[in-house]
Design brief:
It is built from seven helices and seven strands, in the order E-H-H-H-H-H-H-E-H-E-E-E-E-E. The chain has about 230 residues and is α+β, with helices and mostly antiparallel strands. It has one domain. The chain has a seven-stranded antiparallel beta sheet with strand order 1-6-5-4-3-7-2. A hairpin with a 4-residue loop joins strand 4 and strand 5. Helix 1 packs across helix 3 and helix 2 packs across helix 3. The relative contact order is 0.23.
């Protein structure tokens, strides 16, 4: 099974490379909620199952297939605004948004399942209110893939590639890649389906030109060669 793009919309404006290690590490534990004026929600347990959440997150993420830095800068900026970041760094280099896109989809999914109302105008502000809830119950939303992966390891929800391939890989799991061959994740996505040969995934900030910084939201067909492991959300 070859590694090909499915409904891939490459970003023709390839930015200067901003590596994963250069991304500001902002997550649901470190974000300055007071500065961003994020209200506290009541500490209620989710009324839906982890499987419902993971599959809703995937459903939401698939809504963004075809969005790129070039054709929808506003939406890409919203992914990053969730953590208080803008479209570019101080030097004008566009930020990577693979982890932010997954996190944004998780927040939107949580709100939809919980009946929390939002509009296009206030969505980012509303989604910020559930960041901690997602961190408490599922995974640590973050701007950096490796931060999400390390938290999954800590909380016991992580499955290495070998462990996952011995069992089943389920829709809605977060998959972590290392395309540079290191032991750190430099990209992530959400599993759509999988078999022994590879996976269909939904990914942010990818394209046929660059797997880790392609600027597009796309469905991909991946083999397991560059996979580090998975956050098994259920």
């Amino acid at each position: 099974m070859s590694q090909t793009d499915i409904f891939d919309q490459p970003d023709i404006q390839q930015p200067d490379e901003l590596s994963e290690s250069q991304m500001p590490v902002v997550d649901a534990n470190s974000i300055d909620f007071e500065e961003l004026a994020v209200p506290e929600l009541a500490a209620e347990a989710p009324s839906f199952s982890p499987q419902d959440f993971a599959q809703k997150m995937l459903e939401v993420a698939l809504e963004y297939v075809g969005v790129t830095r070039a054709n929808n800068r506003q939406q890409v900026t919203k992914f990053l605004n969730l953590f208080g970041l803008g479209f570019t760094d101080p030097n004008g280099v566009p930020y990577k948004f693979c982890a932010s896109g997954v996190s944004y989809s998780a927040c939107k999914a949580y709100c939809l399942l919980s009946g929390i109302q939002f509009t296009p105008a206030n969505s980012v502000a509303v989604f910020r209110t559930v960041l901690r809830k997602i961190s408490q119950s599922y995974f640590l939303p973050s701007t950096v893939c490796e931060t999400i992966r390390q938290n999954a390891i800590t909380r016991g929800s992580y499955k290495s590639k070998a462990e996952a391939l011995e069992g089943n890989i389920f829709a809605g799991w977060i998959v972590f890649y290392s395309f540079d061959g290191s032991a750190r994740a430099d990209h992530c996505g959400i599993v759509i389906d999988a078999d022994e040969e590879g996976m269909h995934t939904m990914e942010f900030n990818t394209s046929s030109a660059s797997s880790t910084n392609g600027g597009a939201c796309a469905q991909k067909h991946r083999t397991y060669g560059s996979v580090l492991g998975f956050a098994a959300l259920y």
